[in-house]
Automatic annotation (TrEMBL):
Signal peptide: none annotated. SMART domains: HTH_ARAC. PROSITE patterns: HTH_ARAC_FAMILY_1, HTH_ARAC_FAMILY_2. GO terms for molecular function: DNA-binding transcription factor activity; sequence-specific DNA binding. This is GlxA family transcriptional regulator. It comes from Stutzerimonas zhaodongensis. Residues 229-327 form the HTH araC/xylS-type domain. InterPro entries: Class_I_gatase-like, DJ-1/PfpI, Homeodomain-like_sf, HTH_AraC, HTH_AraC-typ_CS, INH-QAR. Keywords: DNA-binding, Transcription, Transcription regulation. It comes from the Bacteria. PANTHER family: ARAC-FAMILY TRANSCRIPTIONAL REGULATOR, HTH-TYPE TRANSCRIPTIONAL REGULATOR RV1931C. Coiled coil: none annotated.
């Protein structure tokens, strides 16, 4: 019989409720799927706080800690998750918590953060010399720790094939914690069971950890540049056409130099990078819906040759188009 793994999640005042309940529900659902197969539950779930009892989340309702972390034997925990929330700033100055985390880290098989919980691990010095990510809104704060290699454009840093990142890892905002938990379940119990959990939760098996945090389609101008806004609305309907900088500048009736300046100012990336992201998103959607072959998808979305599509998928999603379709299509 498999040994039961204890999964603990920290709670504190003003914690983000979904950072806690999202990942923990994944582990709970894994237990349910095993029980459907006549197998014993694999995970024991535990909430720990500075003391046992209720803690008000940032949503206003309360989560109840089963035990104080100070009384826990870290060696008895398989995995500890540190969630984020508006209460993170207070916990970053909780010296007792930071000391406990430093002492617990070598004894716990897996220690990870969800969302801005990475700032607590960073303040404890546990992310020094490591790759880390967090919610995009907190990347600047995480970048203030010079010893951390911040990777903002990814969902999580967990990699079961790498000893260091399988031990200590971080994830991006809110729902990325669910992707992280599914990756942990897959590593523990196999892809088939993780797939059943994802299906029960009505979501993808899991988005690859290297996938970007948000869609380029959300990157609309923040200012009042009407010509650029109109161009961004025009691009998705013309992905198979020439979308070079010169062609885009002609469409927007501005010079290529002005186009590049406005894109970097208003969108945060160059026009070529933006077009690639939109093409990639369109290709993902076509593959998810099984609407066309990979070669046809490459042609329709402007990549031309399937090899160009493969390189873009590997660069931004860390997976090939074929593997992406087999996982999610």
């Amino acid at each position: 019989m498999d040994a039961t793994r204890t999964i603990a999640c920290l709670v504190y005042p003003d914690v983000m409720s979904l950072d806690v309940t999202g990942p923990m529900q994944v582990f709970a659902s894994a237990n349910v799927e095993r029980q459907r197969q006549g197998l014993a539950a694999h995970y024991a779930l535990l909430l720990i706080g500075e003391q046992a009892g209720p803690f008000a989340t940032s949503a206003g309702f309360k989560l109840v800690a089963d035990a104080p972390w100070g009384s826990m034997d870290p060696a008895g925990l398989d995995t500890l998750l540190v969630p984020g929330g508006s209460g993170v700033q207070v916990q970053m100055h909780n010296r007792s918590l930071l000391d406990w985390l430093r002492g617990a880290e070598p004894q716990i098989r897996r220690l990870g953060s969800v969302c801005s919980g990475a700032l607590i691990l960073a303040e404890a010095g546990l992310l020094n010399g490591r790759k880390a990510t967090t919610h995009w809104a907190d990347l600047a704060a995480l970048s203030g720790y010079s010893a951390i290699e911040v990777q903002g454009d990814r969902l999580h840093t967990y990699d079961p094939t790498d000893r260091e990142s399988a031990h200590l890892f971080s994830s991006a905002g809110v729902t990325a914690g669910i992707d992280l938990a599914l990756a942990l379940v897959e590593a523990d119990l196999g892809r088939a069971l993780a797939l059943r959990v994802a299906q029960r939760l009505v979501m993808f098996l899991r988005r690859p950890g290297g996938q970007t945090q948000f869609s380029p389609m959300l990157a609309a101008p923040t200012g009042s540049v009407a010509r650029l806004a109109e161009l961004l609305e025009w691009i998705p309907g013309h992905l198979g056409e020439d979308l070079s900088i010169e062609a885009l500048a002609e469409q927007a009736h501005i010079t290529p130099r002005t186009l590049c300046r406005l894109f970097n100012l208003e969108v945060g990336m160059g026009p070529g990078q933006y077009v690639e992201r939109v093409r990639l998103e369109a290709a993902r959607n076509l593959l998810l819906d099984a609407q066309a072959s990979i070669a046809t998808v490459a042609r329709l979305t402007g990549f031309g040759h399937p090899e160009n599509l493969r390189r873009s998928f590997q660069k931004h999603l860390a997976v090939s188009p074929r593997d992406f379709f087999q996982r999610f299509g």
